[in-house]
What does this fold into?
Amino acid sequence: MIRRVTSTAAALALLAGLAACGGSKDAAAATTLTYWMFADRTPQAGQVVEKLRAGFEAANKGVAVKIVKIPKDDYNTKLGTALATGSVPDAGTLDQPLVARFALDGTIKEVPAGTVDEKAFYEGALTTNRVDGKLYGLPQDHTTVGLFYNKTLVPVPPKTWDELKRVTAEIHQKDPKIAGIVVPKGDGYGGWMWPGFVAGAGGEMASVKDKKVLFDQPPAVEALQLWVDLLKSSPREITDSDKPFENGLAGMMISGPWDVANIKDQFPDLQFSVAPLPYKTEPAGNIGGENAVVFSKGKNPDLAWKWLKYLTDPANNTQLAQALGGFPSTIAAAERDAATFGPDQAAFLEQLKVARARPAVPQWIQINDEIIAPAIESALSGKATAQQALTGAADKTRTLLGWTG
Amino acid sequence: MAVPVAERPTDTPRPGRLLGRPGRWRRDHLVGWLLIAPAMAYFIVFLLYPALAALYYSFTDWDLRTAPNWVGLANYTDLLFDGAKYPHFWQSVRVTLLYTLIAVPLTMGTALCQALLLNAIRRGSGVFRLLLFLPVVTAEAAVGAIWRWLYDPQYGLVNVVLGLAGIPRQNWLNTPGLVIPALAFIAAWQCGISMIIYLAGLKGIPASIREAAIIDGAGPVQRFRRIVVPMLRPTTFYLLVTGVIAALQVFGLVYVIFSGGGGRSVTGGPEQAGLTYVLHLYLFAFRYDAMGAACAMSFILLVFIMIITALEFRLVRQEAS
Amino acid sequence: MSRIRLAPVYAILVVLTLVSVVPFLWMLATSFKHGPDVYTKVPSLLPLDRRTGEWSPTLENYEHVVGIGGLGRAFLNSVWVCLVLVPAKLLVDALAAYAFARIPFPGRDRLFALLLAGMMVPTITLLVPRIHVTQELGMFDSGWGLILPNVASVLDIFLLRQFFLSLPRELEEAALIDGAGRMQIFWRIIVPLSKPVLAVVTITSFIFHWNDLVWPLVVLNDPDLYTLPLALQQLASSESGRAYYIMAGAALAVVPVIIVLMVFQRRIMEGIAFSGLKS
It folds into this structure.
C-alpha cells in the first residue's frame, strides 16, 4: 500500500515537472491575458478592438491578449456561472451597478494606488467605480440619455419641465393620433432613466454615506408626477407601438447616443435632433456605460491593469468609446476629439458634465427592478399617486437594506 | 405501421413466466442494467448530482461568488411567507398557473385539430405538414421580434385581423390582462411537435377499425368520439404530462418577447403580468445574487409538478377503469 | 371520401396554415428589405420600397450577417455538434427506453420514476453544477463539453418507452424462444418497428440542439467553437433594433432544419400508437 502511494506520488511529481517545463517554455513565448467584453455592436467596432489588441501586443513582447466577446443580454449569466465555477477571466467589462457588489465581496480587485491619475477621468464616470471611497475599476466609456425631438413637431426643444409639459400637450392637441412624448415605462430601463429627472429637481435617490433613502422626498415625487402628467397627452396605445418616435407617432423620446446612428440608418427621412434633458431647478442626467475590472481570481493582475490603463489612455480612449457606443471617459480625449462627435452628440456631451452615478449599494439592481420600477408603473397606471407609490417603495427599500432613514 | 389493437393480448404474460428459466432471468437483469448503463451514467453525473447540489444550495445563501452559508429552511419560508423580501413570488405563481391553464389546452387543441385535418387528406398533406411545422423551427431570437411586430398596437397584423371581426384594437403585450393570453397564443402557434405526435398516433389507428365503424353506420362525430378519442388517449396523456411540465417551466418565450435587446433587463412585462415562475427564478439566480433562493424556488416547483403529475396519472387510471 | 366533402377540410387547413406561415413570411420578407423599408405604417409581407411601393429586395442583410466574423464557422460547428450528438443521443435513449419498457430487472420502475422527477427540476437551476462537473471532467470549453453533457434526455426516453410498450410482444417472445438475444431483438425487431417514433425524436432533438443557446453560452469561451445560436444572439443583442439582420440570420439558420424535417418527416407518417401507460 505504502509502495503504491509513493509510486503514485513519484508519478505525480514527474507529471508536475513535465507540466512545469511545458509551462515555462510557453511563458517565454507568451503570457496570455484573458479579457471578456460585450459582443461588437458593429463590424467596425470589432476592427477597432482588434487594432487596440494588436497595438498592446506589439508594445508588450511575449504577451497575447485573448478577447472573449459575449452577447450583452447574456453576459451576466455567463459571468455568474464562471465566477461560481472558478473559470474567470483576468479582466473584463462589468456593468456599473455590479461594481459595488463585486467590490464588497472581494470578487474584483481594488485599483492599485498610482495606476492612473484619477483627475484625468470625468468624475461621474469614475464615481461608478467607487465603493466606500475606494476605486475598483476604470470607466471605458460613459453615456447618458437626452431628449430626442422631431424637428417638424417640435421646432424648439423644451428646456424646463414646464416647457416640456406645454410642448407635449400642444403636440397631442394638434393631432390626437400623435403622442407628445414617449413616456418611459415602469421597468428596469425606466428605473435607470428616472434618477436623471429626480436630479433635475435637485433631488437624489439615496445617500449611501448617511444610509438614507431619499426617493420619497419632494424632488423625486415631482419627477414622477411629471411623467404622470406627460402621459395624459401621450397615450400608451400610440407609444407602445414599435419605434413610435422614429415613425413620427411621437414628438419626443428619451434615449441615448446609440439611437442616433440607428435612426439615421433606418429612418433617413426623419428630421430630428437631440437636446439635454429638461430640468426643474438644475440641469442633470443619469449615467451609464462600461467599466472594466480585474478579477481577484484572475492570474495576471499587473498585466491586466496595464491593459485596462492602455484602453483608457487618452490616445485610445476615443476610438474605444465610440466602438462601445459611448463617449470617452477621459477628459483629455473628450476635449481633443469633441469636434469629431458631430452636432447630434453635443447634447449628450453637455449632459455628461452633470451626470450622476447610481448609489453604490450592492442590492441596487434588485431595488431598481423589484421596487422602484413597479412603483413608477403603479403611479403611471393611476393605481396610486406618485407620493403613495414612492412612500411605499422607499419603505420597502429601507426594510431590504436595513436602513432607518 | 399499424398496431392491430384487436389482436393485442389483453393479458400479456410476463416474459419471465413464459420462459420460466431462472438463468434467463438473471442474464436479463444484467442485460437490462447494461442497456440503461450509458443513460444512467449520464443522469447520475449530469442530472442527479447537479440536482442534489442544487438541493444543498437551496438551504444556503449562496450568491455564486462567496462561500455558501447554511441558512436552513429560511429560503423556503421567506419565499412562501415574506412578501417584503420576495414581493413578486406569488405573482409569478399566479402568472404561471394562468399561463398553464390557457396554453396547455390551447396548444393540444390546435395540435389535435391540425393533425385530424392532415389525416383526412391525401393530396398536399406533405406540404401542409411542413408549413404547419415552420413555427417550431424558427430561431427564438426571431420569434420575439416577429411577435412583437404582430402584436403591435398600431400596425400589428393581429389587430388588423381582429378588426375585420369588429373587435377593437388591443395593446396586447402592454395590458396586464392580455399578456398571458397573448403568450399562450404564441405557444399554440408553436404546437408543431404535439401536432406531429398526434398525427403519428392517428396514423397508428388501424384502418380496419375505422372501416368497421363506417359499415356500422357511425358518422364522423361518432367515429371521433368512439374510436379516435379512446385510441389517442395514451398520446393525449403523454402530451398532457409533458405539456404541463413545460408550461410550468416556461421561460424562453417570455424572455424573448420582453427583452428589447441591447442588454436591457427583462423584468416581466407590464405590472409583472408576464413574470413567470422560472423567469422570476432566473432573475434571482443571475441578477439579484440569490442562487440559494432560486434553488429553493426550483424545489418548490418540483414538489408542485410532482403533485400535479401524480394527479394526472390517477385521473387517467380512473378513466381507464 | 369525395373531393367535395374534403373542401371544408382544405379550407380550414389553409386558414390554419396561413396563421402558421404569415409570421415566417414576414421574417423572410424583412430579411430581404432595405433598412428604411422595414418599419412602414402598413405592414408589408413583401420587400417593397417604402415610398414608391415598388419591388425592391436586397441581399445586403445576408452579406452583412455572413460577413460578420465567425458566422460561417459557427454554422459548421453547429452542424458538426448535431451530427455527433443527435445519433449518439438517439442510441443512448433508445437502449435505455427499451430496457425500461421490456426487460424486467430489479428497481426498474423506481429508477424510471426518479428520472421523471429529474425532468421536473428547471434546467436553469442545474446550470452551475453541470458546468462544475463538466470542468471536473476536463471537458469545459471544448467540443466534448457541448456533446457529452447533452447525450441523454428523460423526455425522449419517456416518449420512446411509451412507444415500445405499445409494440406487440408476440414477435419478441417468439424470437426469445428461438434463442435470440436481447440485442438482436432490439436491432432486428424493435428498431424497424419504431422508425416513426425514432424520426420524431431525431427531429425534436435536432431542433432543440440546433437552437440551444444557454448551454453553449456558458460552456464555451473559445470563439472558434461558438455555435450558430451564439453567433445569432450576438447579432440580436448588439445591433439593437436592427430586425433585418436578425431575420436574415434566422432565415439562414432555418435551412438545415427544414432539410432534416423533410428527410425524417416521411417516416413519421408510418404511425405511432401508444398503448398501456403502465407506470
Notes: Chain A touches chain B at residues 38, 72-73, 75-77, 80-81, 83-84, 101-102, 105-107, 185-189, 236-238, 240-242, 244, 247, 249, 258, 362-363, 365-366, 369-371, 373-374, 377-378, 381, 396, 399-400 (CB under 8 Å). Confidence is low (pLDDT under 50) at residues 1-29 of chain A. The CA atoms of residues 149 and 252 of chain A lie 4 Å apart.
